């Protein structure tokens, strides 16, 4: 296991990538978690999620209820992953080698990496079209600036992502609150809808699933941003901070999005926010919309950071690499070029295609999150030999059949329940979904089946060998820390 010498003061540009963070460098603070994940959803990507229910005839009230329930479920899974960061001091996908094997982890890594890139492609297109519509700015220039700023934030790394997110939040939170209060008291404009909005199960479940999916897609990299917390940080406090941060912001803006769609007739999240804000106070909407766009650029940096760690994990799974700062920077720059070029080939009208891709990624990520959490909380109960995660022929194996089989079974069982919107001229509705009026419960099925399958497969797992390896691993890591301090 290669480590980078620790330093008493964290460098301006983060030195670490996929390697273990020693206790001497655990300078993170618990209170930083809630602002990070609050702002991660406090941008206008969240607003159109609130358009989904009304687009299918769901009322504002039922849209809020469906969003709240969906976020409660999806964010809970996301938040539980955050506890692994302080406990292990590793990026999320390195830890997944324990369930899928040193090389087998490439399977969930594919879904994770695609999600990072797809999010940033979507964000780039949304920023270009949104800022062009709101302020008349050149969409191509916006795309270049967004890509450069996101890459810079990712390069500077963990500490700067936390810091930059807090700065934006301090400014945008009170201004968005003014807009929201203005909407509630009737100063945001709008009118009573001419169409009827009420309740249908199809619309309710579509909104519920979209809200749940929104935060589940954060699961593969939530511990990337908690791994600098001291190992003694209470797990319950980490879960609560991440949960209320991520769910609170998303529910706020999804609810606002439902109002913008029904009362203001908005079809674009940024334009609707700008119009409502300007109705409340002159030019307030201009400022709030810009800050929301800036928060989305920052979120692109978060995606680039996690994406780079995923790529390095994938490469290291087949050819051992030294986890240096340079490797992380080069990977970020390569990912930036890839998502920028893809984004430039997609028009604003085609963004729905990318959203459909993300629906597919939810189906792929759900069996992973179930396997990972069941293993961490119920099978191995947080006990891992960390140095073995960096050995191709370690105790966790190259291809761990239990995790891979549970993942495969969970995904296959999702297929009859899937409702995949149009993607490149092709769409799919599963056998059972078509008989349920198109209600999408595939991810719920995937969670349940994968969890049960993995529990059954691990019933006979002998953990005694792992306990011995864990003790040896802890001794080696303690020795490395003593060497660094010396």
Strand order of the largest sheet: 1-2
Sketch the major β-sheet: 2 strands, antiparallel
The oligomeric status of these chains comes to single chain
Number of strands: 2
Task: Tell me the Rg in angstroms.
Answer: 22 Å
- CATH class category label of the domain at 23-362: Mainly Alpha
**Shape, per Cα inertia axes:** globular
Which secondary-structure class do the elements indicate?
mainly alpha
Q: pLDDT under 50 segments (min length 5)?
A: none
- The percent range for strand residues is under 5%
- Series of secondary-structure elements, N-terminal to C-terminal: HHHHHHHHHHHHHHHHEEHHH
Q: What is the H level of CATH, i.e. the homologous superfamily of the domain at 23-362?
A: Hydantoin permease
Instruction: Based on the coordinates given, report the CATH architecture of the domain at 23-362.
Output: Orthogonal Bundle
**Mean pLDDT rating:** 89
CATH topology of the domain at 23-362: Hydantoin permease
The first-to-last residue Cα distance is 19 Å
The number of helices is: 19
What's the arrangement of secondary structure elements?
Elements: H1 33-41, H2 52-55, H3 60-82, H4 84-88, H5 92-95, H6 97-100, H7 106-135, H8 139-156, H9 158-184, H10 201-216, H11 235-263, H12 269-280, H13 284-316, H14 325-344, H15 351-379, H16 401-414, E1 419-423, E2 426-429, H17 431-434, H18 442-457, H19 464-485
Antiparallel strand pairs: 1-2
Helix pairs in contact: 1-9, 1-11, 3-10, 3-11, 3-15, 7-8, 7-12, 7-13, 7-14, 7-15, 8-13, 8-14, 9-12, 9-13, 12-13, 13-14, 15-16, 15-18, 16-18
